[in-house]
Every structure is written in structure tokens, then in C-alpha cells.
Write a structure and sequence with these properties.
With 198 residues, the chain is mainly α. It is built from six helices and no strands.
Length: 198
Amino acid sequence: MELIRRAREVLSIAKAADVARRVAVMNFFDGIMVGSGLVLGMFLSGTFSYQAALMTVLSVAVGSAISGFTGAWIAERIEQEHRLRKLEEAILADLKGTLYQRVARSAPVLVGTVNGLSAAFGVGIVAMPFLLSLLLNADPLIGTYASVTVSLGLLVTVGLALERALHLRTVFAVKRLLTAGLATMLLVLAMDLLVRAL
């Protein structure tokens, strides 16, 4: 709990709390979309070995986490350095070794971590029903349906959270996120038909 309190304090001082929340939601959405495409791709390609599917999911989750961390860390590092320079110019003092410099270095790591973990969780949560169906030797089609259902449920939840946080009209974000999710699934199915025709 102390670690979470300190992280919130750093993000607050660095004025990066809103950024961390925003990237968490958007990268979780990315993870949901990647997870949906991944599960459908594994099902359509006949990847029904538990070990192969698990390794694929873990690899994609790790790749998403590292990509999310790196992108957010670089962007926030640039933002924090710019903010620190502006503050130094405003007060005509060097802030090297101060709390402000330490916070400017810690905030990008925190924002990057939130970003990376959000994407990995999105992929993992969506893929879990499919993986469980393989582990339990159940019908992979049931696992695929369950993963698609989880994906659509998560998209609705993220949409509702966005609407509430941004004071948007009811179902504004939900409709758009569901449309994106369904478009992803339809494109994967269309690609399957194209690949089979080759």
C-alpha cells in the first residue's frame, strides 16, 4: 500500500496522473483488441495445443507490455524533461538533485509500467477462456466463444468507464469500441477466408 501511495504522489507532483489513467485505459483497449485477434487467429489456424497456445499468448503479452512501456516511457520522459526545464527557467534555478528532478525521472517509469501492464492484462484476460478450454480438453469452439464474449464485455466496460470519466453521451464510446472490436473480428475471419483461398 505504501508503494501505491508513493506512486500516486509522484504522478501527482509530476502532473502525470491523468496521463497514466488515459494510457492505462487506451492500452487495455489495445490489449483487448490484440487478444481478440490472437484468439480468433489461433482457433482458425487450428492451434489447439495448450503449450503452443500458451506460449503464443505469453509472447504477445510480453511484446505488448514492452512496446507499451517503451512508447509511454519515451513520451513521458520528453514531457517531464521539458516541464522541468520550463520550471527552472521560471524560477531561475537549477533543480538538479531536488525532489522535482527525482519526480521527473520516476514519473515516466510509472506511466510506462502502467501502460505496459494494461496491454498485457488485456491480452491475457481475453485469451484466458480459450486457454482454459485447451487445458481442460474442452471444445476449443466453446473457449473461442467465451473469449469473444469476454472481449465484448470488456469493450462495453471500458466504453462505460470512458463515458463516465469524460462525461460523454450514454453509449457514445461503447458503440465505437464495440464497432472496433467487431470490425477486428470480422477482418480476422475475412483474412482466414482469403488465406484458405490461396
